[in-house]
Structure formats: structure tokens, C-alpha cells
Design a protein that fits this description.
By secondary structure, the protein is mainly alpha-helical. It contains ten helices and two strands; from the N terminus they run ααααββαααααα.
Length: 278
């Protein structure tokens, strides 16, 4: 009995040892057959990556460009509206919502500006002073061969957005003076009020004069309409022939659509609560 147990143990140990040896040999063979990629291989893979990226960046339509250009101005007005919340004694819930909208749409503006710049298109620059929104169309610069320029442009764009939202009167006056000599700037300034959901200047002033619960109510009502306009713009993009085939614009437009629909539903509930308390 003990002999059988000993033989069984020996057999088991031998089998485990054999399996371990086989695994080690298999691992050694795997390691030997899959050496680390050389620098030449890595360079080739990098070249393929950039080639595919450039190819994707050339796959866009005028509808894509128009969507990005218009949505930048559309988002910019949401920044103006959202910044009024803490200044106008909005409720904590509305201030939280406004801050979320401001942060999300500010980031999306930078993303859309970069998308246009990477494709050699004119880039709308956002100029905000109080309730005034002006858009300067910056002509495209030659696309550099160095692909590592992206990091530099992203940093520069972040600095630009922070700079352009400064409420400095001298800064505004400088650009107002240049507007008189820039028909493209004036054309963009008048055009952005024609987009779906955009508030008129009178409506912005009405919102700015409201305080407390009145502000909450008007902010939610106006922002719902503003969001519905953005949803309509995304729907129009997806319905255009050949549009949104570029992965970057498809993902961004899809995110905007989902984000705005979610916030519309949330704002409608908040609006109902205010109305029930009146």
C-alpha cells in the first residue's frame, strides 16, 4: 500500500516536473521566436501610423467643415450663458449644471479648432467680452511635416482660449477696431445668430438681468432651446451625403448629441420642479 502511494507520488512528481520542463521549453522557444522589435521595425510602424492618420485627415467633406465651424460659435454662446450663473445668484443645482456645460463645451471648442487646423481649414477664434461674442476666422497655415507639432498646438490652443475669454476692455477695443477692416470677421459675427437654438442679443440681455429663481427658470428654458439646436445640427451632419466618415468628427458629433440630449432631459426635470413651486 505504501509502495503504491510512493509510486503514485513519484509518478505525479515526475509528471509535474515534465510539464514544468515543457512549459519552460515552450516559453524559451516563444521568446526565441519573437524577439523584441528593432528600431527599424519601430520606425516603419510609426511611418505607417502617421500615413494612416494623414489619410484619415484628408477624408472629410465641406459639410464636416461647416459643422465644426458653426458648432464652435454655437458652443461659444453657451459659455456666455453659463458664466452668468454664479454672477446672477443661480441655485446650486443650476450653477453645477452651468459649470459642467462650460467645461465640456470649452474643451470641445478646442477639439474642433484643432480638427480644422489639422486639415488646413480656416479656424474660428472665439472672442468673448461680457455678452458680446465675436468670431475671427483665422486663415490656415501651411501644414508642417513634423507630426509632433500636435502637442505644441494643443498647448497653444489652451492658452488661446484662456486669453480670449478675458474681460479686458482694451483687448475688446483692439479687436473691435480690427473688425472694421475685416469683412470676414463681421460676416461671422452676424452669421452665428442665425444658427438653430442661438439666442438673440436681446434674449442674452434678458437672461443677464434676471436674478435668483427667475434666472434659473430663464437659463433652463433658453439652454434647452440652445441644446435642441445643437442636436438638430448633429442630425443635419449625419444626414449629409458623405459627411462624418472621418472617425474624429463622427465620435465628437456623437458625443455632442448624447451629451446634449441627456442634459435636455435633466433640464426639463429641473424646470418642472421650478414651475411646481411657483
Amino acid at each position: 500500500m505504501f509502495l503504491v502511494a510512493a509510486l503514485a507520488t513519484t509518478s505525479c512528481t515526475s509528471t509535474e516536473h515534465s510539464q514544468t520542463m515543457n512549459e519552460e521549453e515552450s516559453g524559451d522557444q516563444h521568446h526565441r521566436h519573437h524577439p523584441a522589435p528593432s528600431s527599424a521595425d519601430l520606425s516603419e510602424l510609426e511611418a505607417i501610423y502617421w500615413s494612416r492618420l494623414e489619410a484619415s485627415r484628408s477624408s472629410f467633406t465641406q459639410a464636416d467643415v461647416d459643422f465644426m465651424t458653426d458648432m464652435i460659435a454655437h458652443h461659444a454662446q453657451a459659455l456666455i450663458m453659463s458664466r452668468l450663473a454664479p454672477e446672477n445668484d443661480a441655485s446650486r443645482a443650476v450653477q453645477t449644471l452651468a459649470a459642467r456645460i462650460h467645461n465640456a463645451q470649452g474643451d470641445e471648442i478646442a477639439t474642433m479648432q484643432k480638427w480644422l487646423r489639422d486639415r488646413g481649414q480656416a479656424v474660428p477664434e472665439v472672442h468673448i467680452d461680457g455678452l458680446m461674442l465675436m468670431i475671427r476666422m483665422k486663415e490656415p497655415e501651411p501644414i508642417e511635416a513634423d507630426h509632433h507639432r500636435d502637442e505644441h498646438h494643443h498647448t497653444a490652443e489652451a492658452d488661446h482660449m484662456e486669453h480670449e475669454e478675458d474681460h479686458n476692455h482694451h483687448h475688446r477695443q483692439t479687436h473691435e477696431d480690427s473688425d472694421d477692416e475685416d469683412p470676414q470677421m463681421m460676416m461671422a459675427h452676424h452669421h452665428h445668430h442665425d444658427m438653430p437654438g442661438m439666442l438673440t442679443q436681446e434674449q442674452l440681455e434678458e437672461l443677464a438681468e434676471a436674478r435668483g429663481t427667475e434666472f434659473d427658470y430663464k437659463f433652463l428654458a433658453f439652454m434647452i432651446e440652445h441644446h435642441l439646436g445643437a442636436v438638430y445640427m448633429v442630425d443635419q451632419l449625419f444626414g449629409a451625403d458623405g459627411a462624418a466618415n472621418d472617425n474624429e468628427i463622427f465620435d465628437l458629433a456623437s458625443d455632442i448629441h448624447a451629451e446634449q440630449v441627456t442634459e435636455i432631459n435633466r433640464m426639463r426635470l429641473m424646470l418642472e420642479e421650478i414651475e411646481s413651486a411657483m
